[in-house]
């Protein structure tokens, strides 16, 4: 096991660094302290995730690749959190909704500390997000850990504590490719999800859970991702692909994504995985010009977005610890 890091720049008075974790099998994981970002996963020297050309590119244009997105990843309807008689307003930054925490945690430079022993190589990253930043209440201390073991499993965790009543629902926004160059349509996917959440024109859930049976969203048996993306399904057509929460049934693993040569097995204690298939990539953007539609697929492990304004499920009491765990086993 080995850890190392390399400074590649400066931002906001802090050093920007690329941290490398290497196991005894030669698998290498690269993490940026910009955004607590998962930059690369190299298995037999092949990158398993969607990455930009250089570490320095990540802070130039927000694109969410591998970032720890928060305080809330995903959308909040009209940016409103209603609790008791109070209505708390968050910034509106996508149509009529709030998305991805405003200028969120994936755009901050985190402190970090690498370490390793005979069993794992890891990096711990911490961020202090002050009261009122992006109009979120509470001083929030966030701790993210990436830990690589000799089973070729990368463990990712988020822990956080606030000193005030607040809302928190972060996610790692890594896009998996399993080394596929153009798109992920020919990858195979299986999920332990019997229900999904249909969404409205703005991407917000609007009618509760629906069974995946008989729909394009049925991955209870392994099938090609492209079969869903090419389906004549109004939900797929409206979003240009998948951009939907899948409600996990409690059986592990949550998801298995496979190619002819590789596989990633996703386990999590989150109640849902939000699947986004890179519908918006269109060979534009200075740093994402190489990415076309369906260039990668996410498994965003979190509490699914709320239909309305009651965000009780993602509310943290003062001093209450938030915990989220995800693991990605590569083969």
TrEMBL record:
Pfam families: Aldose_epim. Coiled coil: none annotated. Gene3D superfamilies: 2.70.98.10. GO terms for cellular component: cytoplasm. It comes from the Bacteria. One of its GO terms (molecular function) is aldose 1-epimerase activity. Keywords: Carbohydrate metabolism, Isomerase. Signal peptide: none annotated. The keyword Signal does not apply. InterPro entries: Aldose_1/G6P_1-epimerase, Gal_mutarotase_sf_dom, Galactose_mutarotase-like, GH-type_carb-bd. GO terms for biological process: galactose catabolic process via UDP-galactose, Leloir pathway; glucose metabolic process. Belongs to the aldose epimerase family. This is Galactose-1-epimerase.
């Amino acid at each position: 096991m080995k850890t190392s890091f390399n400074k590649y720049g400066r931002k906001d008075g802090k050093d920007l660094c690329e941290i490398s974790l290497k196991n005894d099998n030669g698998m290498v994981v690269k993490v940026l302290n910009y955004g607590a970002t998962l930059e690369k996963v190299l298995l037999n020297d092949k990158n398993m995730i969607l990455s930009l050309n250089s570490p320095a590119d990540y802070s130039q244009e927000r694109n969410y690749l591998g970032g720890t997105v928060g305080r809330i990843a995903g959308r909040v309807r009209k940016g409103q959190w209603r609790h008791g008689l109070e209505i708390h307003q968050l910034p509106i930054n996508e149509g009529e909704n709030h998305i991805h925490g405003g200028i969120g945690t994936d755009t901050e430079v985190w402190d970090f500390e690498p370490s390793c022993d005979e069993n794992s190589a890891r990096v711990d990253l911490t961020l202090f997000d002050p009261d009122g930043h992006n109009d979120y209440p509470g001083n929030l201390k966030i701790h993210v850990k990436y830990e690589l073991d000799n089973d070729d499993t990368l463990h990712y965790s988020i822990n956080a504590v606030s000193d005030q009543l607040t809302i928190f629902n972060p996610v790692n926004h890594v896009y998996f490719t399993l080394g596929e160059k153009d798109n992920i349509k020919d990858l195979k996917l299986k999920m332990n999800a019997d229900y999904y959440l249909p969404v409205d024109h703005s991407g917000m859930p609007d009618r509760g859970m629906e069974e995946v049976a008989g729909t394009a969203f049925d991955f209870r048996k392994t099938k090609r991702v492209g079969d869903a993306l090419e389906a004549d399904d109004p939900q797929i057509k409206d979003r240009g692909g998948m951009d939907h929460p899948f409600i996990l049934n409690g059986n592990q693993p949550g998801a298995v994504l496979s190619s002819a040569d590789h596989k990633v097995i996703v386990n999590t204690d989150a109640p849902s995985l939000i699947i986004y298939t890179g519908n918006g990539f269109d060979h534009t953007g200075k740093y994402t010009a190489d990415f076309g539609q369906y260039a990668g697929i996410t498994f965003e492990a979190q509490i699914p977005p709320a239909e309305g304004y009651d965000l009780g499920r993602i509310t943290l009491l003062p001093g209450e610890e938030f915990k989220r765990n995800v693991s990605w086993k590569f083969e």
